[in-house]
Design a protein that fits this description.
Bound molecules: zinc ion
Structural class: alpha+beta
Order of helices and strands: HHHHHHHEEEEEEHEHEHEEEEHHHHHH
Number of helices: 16
Shape: globular
Length: about 450
């Protein structure tokens, strides 16, 4: 006979289910200050939870969500007392400081820690891979707000307004899921280029992450823009390890040093067979990063993949502070190559798997656009958490085979029947019980 799991495991599992996570997010929204004194019936918490529900249900627009205003499920499944109209939602959320939403990502993260879901993400000696990548989600010649990036066309003088977010996630090469942390908005800095803006955002973001997670051990994985001396010194000061892309064009001195070392037989090389072709790595520890920072030593890792015809297929080079040995070189290659995961599994998922990352839900004059982007990332974190830790969610996903089918089913069930909880809704989809449910009576008052 199967014994039920002990109470502690049951309660952790419950907290990592959709209902548990919605409770947690709602409780955090209720903690946020509400400075309006105009006797409004709709609280900031209700407005935030409504926007969260919109992203959680993957509604393509605020108008589509507005059609749900009288749906009892929004109360039953998301705990919303008063659902705002689309105009009210925009008005209430525009002045909300996006920074206030950061701690909620930490609340979910701690639940994952308690549920032991993070253990399998450890990559090397107790460290987690932390991936950063910036991407745009808004661009317009007309609509803009206080937080917009501005790009001026040098010839025409025409200004384009943009929003970009520096996303960050914990990943592991063996896992499909990623665990996003609170992202950082890439904002205008006077006279700086776009790349400077992203570098500055990375600096702010990594400092915040170190403050929010003082004891976690990280290996930061970034592209070639990051492998410069000031950034590497910053990472060292934050006690973060790194694996950073390095291009020959940006690091002529470094590559010359490695070639000279190679000629003296000081570079270690090793190769192994692949299913179709073979891989080769070369590495050397303790080489100066560049001519003007000769005191800053890095370890150099070069990877080449050859096809069955012996032709070069892929080439990557990284610099790292982790000591490279024959035993760990192939693992570090996997770590460096995990970079595509943030692009593929995070941003492309948000753009193409039902989240409508680039849709414009409303821009506002102050923070609305950034608040919406943060809430969408939070909804994504909640989904990824369920995918990692909730057996019921996984069973429904397996039954429907694709995320798109899962979100479609979720929305159509949500629209046509009344449920007591997310668990109830998932069970009805999983066991095909919809036909046995009573037809809903809509309150259209
Ligand atoms: Zn803007």
């Amino acid at each position: 006979m199967d014994l039920p799991p002990p109470r502690r495991i049951r309660s952790v599992r419950k907290r990592l289910s959709a209902d548990g996570l919605h409770d947690l997010v709602r409780a955090a929204f209720r903690e946020l200050p509400d400075q309006r004194h105009d006797g409004t019936t709709i609280s900031v918490a209700d407005a935030l939870m409504s926007a969260f529900a919109m992203f959680s249900l993957k509604d393509p627009s605020l108008l589509a969500f507005d059609e749900r205003r009288h749906d009892k499920n929004l109360h039953n499944l998301y705990g919303i007392d008063h659902v705002p109209s689309d105009t009210q939602m925009r008005e209430i959320l525009d002045p909300v400081d996006p920074e206030q939403l950061r701690p909620i990502f930490g609340d979910v993260f701690r639940e994952l820690q308690r549920g032991k879901a993070l253990e399998s993400f450890v990559f090397y000696k107790g460290c987690y891979l932390l991936l950063l990548d910036g991407t745009g989600y808004f661009s317009s010649q007309h609509i803009h707000c206080d937080s917009c990036l501005q790009k001026k066309n040098k010839q025409t003088g025409e200004v384009t307004y943009q929003h970009q977010l520096l996303g960050v996630a914990l990943v592991h090469p063996d896992h499909r899921e990623v665990i996003p942390l609170a992202p950082e908005s890439i904002v205008q800095q006077d006279g700086n280029t776009k790349n400077d803006c992203e570098r500055n955002a990375a600096k702010r973001l990594l400092r915040k992450i170190r403050k929010e997670h003082p004891r976690l051990k990280f290996i930061v994985v970034e592209d070639g823009l990051a492998s410069n001396a000031p950034h590497i010194r910053e990472l060292k000061a934050l006690h973060m390890h790194f694996i950073l892309g390095a291009k020959p064009g940006d690091h002529e001195f470094l590559f010359d040093q490695v070639i000279a070392a190679f000629e003296k037989d000081r570079v270690t090389t090793m190769s192994w067979k692949l299913d179709d072709g073979y891989a080769e790595v070369s590495f050397i520890n303790n080489v100066p990063l560049n001519e003007s920072n000769q005191d800053l030593l890095v370890n150099f890792l070069h990877y080449v993949e050859y096809g069955p015809d012996g032709k070069e297929r892929k080439v990557f080079t990284w610099v790292t502070d982790l000591k490279i040995m024959r035993s760990n070189a192939p693992l570090f290659v996997r770590g460096g190559r995990a970079r595509w995961k943030i692009e593929n599994e995070t941003f492309n998922t948000l753009k193409n798997q039902g989240y409508h990352y680039e849709h414009n839900y409303g821009h506002g004059k102050q923070h609305l656009s950034v608040v919406f982007a943060m809430l969408m990332m939070l909804a994504f974190l909640v989904d990824q958490t369920q995918q990692l830790s909730c057996p019921l969610f996984k069973a429904v996903w397996e039954k429907l085979r694709s995320k798109r089918a899962l979100w479609d089913n979720l929305r159509s069930h949500f629209r046509h029947f009344i449920f007591e909880s997310m668990k109830h809704l998932y069970e009805v989809i999983l066991y095909g019980l919809a036909k046995e449910l009573p037809a809903p009576v809509f309150d259209t008052s």
